């Protein structure tokens, strides 16, 4: 019975038959029903089936040992985590794993953001760099006047010729309150501020003067207008009239590249254009000098 594949001897068969006969007699006397197969000779197992069973046992044992090792490793990891954590801050294992993943993602995000910032800092100028002039839709919009320019040029419009005559006699001028702040700032920040005068509708520039004081609060009654601001001193340099046709070639990029004669009161000229305009007074023909409208 221990070795089913080994052939039985006659003694073995006799012994088995005797045991079966005794058991059968006892069962019949007790009224028990014999299940099928009782009293029959056991079927011997072939040698081909033994490797299958042995391999199944080996696989089962390997799987059991692997499960045991995994369980031991999980238990050790959990025990180390529980041991390292403070009793007041112990948390479930799943929450700890989630926290580790979250911290790792946060670190990766910070590294990505730092790389993006470094790329941006290399691609774009620093805020400390000197800003470039702003561009406009028309392409010729003047940039805002830059401070600390040595020479500034402004167009001054007058409603009548009488006010220009008073200015030339007394060496004073007044402008609208909207221009006062702009002219005062130019006077403080620049070494020279030139004012080019023109009577509206005259078709001429009546000369230019240099601003020699800042604009004060005192007003003058000589102008015959209540809409002007405070008085300031001017030093007239040229008093000859210059026809507009002499300046048709001069365009002001700070006024949409319009001709210099097409300017509102207080319009600033680009420095190179302003300098060229003042030089035109030296080119006035002798026959047209001192010509008044």
The helix/strand series, from N terminus to C terminus, equals HHHEHEHEEEEEEEEH
User: What is the C-alpha radius of gyration, as a whole number of Å?
Assistant: 55 Å
- Distance between the amino and carboxyl termini: 145 Å
Largest sheet: 6 strands, mixed
Average pLDDT, rounded to a whole number, is 73
Q: Supply the number of helical segments.
A: 6
Structural class: alpha+beta
% residues in beta strands: 5-15%
Shape: rod-shaped
Helix coverage percent: 40-55%
How many DSSP-defined strands?
Answer: 10
Main sheet: which strands, in order across? 2-6-5-3-1-10
Low-confidence region ranges = 49-54, 77-107, 110-145
Topology:
Layout: H1 10-30, H2 49-84, H3 93-123, E1 151-158, H4 161-170, E2 172-174, H5 177-189, E3 192-199, E4 204-205, E5 207-211, E6 231-238, E7 242-243, E8 251-252, E9 258-259, E10 268-269, H6 271-279
Parallel strand pairs: 1-3
Antiparallel strand pairs: 1-10, 2-6, 3-5, 4-7, 5-6, 8-9
Q: What would your notes on this structure say?
A:
This protein starts with 9 loop residues before the first helix and ends in a 14-residue tail after the last helix. It contains 6 helices and 10 strands, in the order αααβαβαββββββββα. 41% of the residues lie in helices and 14% in strands. Strand 8 and strand 9 form a beta hairpin. It is rod-shaped, with a radius of gyration of 55 Å. The strands form 3 sheets. A 6-stranded mixed beta sheet has the order 2-6-5-3-1-10. Strands 4-7 form a two-stranded antiparallel sheet. Strands 8-9 form a two-stranded antiparallel ribbon. The chain has 293 residues and is of the alpha+beta class.
């Amino acid at each position: 019975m221990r070795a089913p594949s080994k052939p039985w001897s006659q003694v073995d068969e006799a012994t088995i038959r005797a045991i079966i006969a005794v058991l059968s007699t006892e069962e019949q006397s007790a009224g028990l029903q014999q299940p099928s197969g009782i009293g029959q000779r056991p079927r011997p197992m072939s040698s081909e089936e033994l490797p299958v069973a042995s391999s199944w046992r080996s696989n089962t044992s390997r799987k059991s040992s692997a499960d045991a090792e995994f369980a031991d490793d999980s238990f050790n990891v959990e025990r180390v985590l529980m041991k390292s954590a403070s009793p007041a801050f112990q948390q479930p294992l799943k929450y700890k794993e989630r926290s580790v993943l979250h911290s790792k993602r946060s670190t990766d995000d910070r590294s990505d953001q730092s790389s993006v910032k470094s790329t941006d800092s290399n691609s774009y100028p620093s805020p400390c760099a000197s800003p470039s002039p702003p561009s406009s839709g028309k392409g010729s919009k003047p940039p805002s006047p830059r401070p600390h320019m040595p020479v500034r040029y402004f167009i001054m419009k007058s409603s009548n010729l009488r006010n220009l005559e008073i200015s030339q006699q007394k060496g004073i001028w007044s402008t609208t309150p909207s221009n006062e702040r702009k002219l005062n700032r130019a006077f403080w920040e620049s070494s020279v501020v030139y004012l080019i005068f023109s009577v509206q509708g005259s078709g001429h520039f009546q000369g230019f003067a240099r601003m020699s004081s800042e604009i004060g609060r005192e007003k003058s009654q000589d102008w015959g207008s209540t809409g002007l601001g405070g008085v300031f001193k001017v030093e007239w340099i040229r008093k000859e009239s210059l026809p507009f046709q002499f300046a048709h070639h001069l365009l002001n990029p700070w006024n949409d590249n319009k001709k210099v004669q097409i300017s509102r009161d207080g319009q600033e000229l680009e420095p190179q254009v302003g300098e060229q305009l003042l030089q035109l007074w030296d080119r006035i023909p002798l026959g047209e000098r001192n010509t008044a409208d």
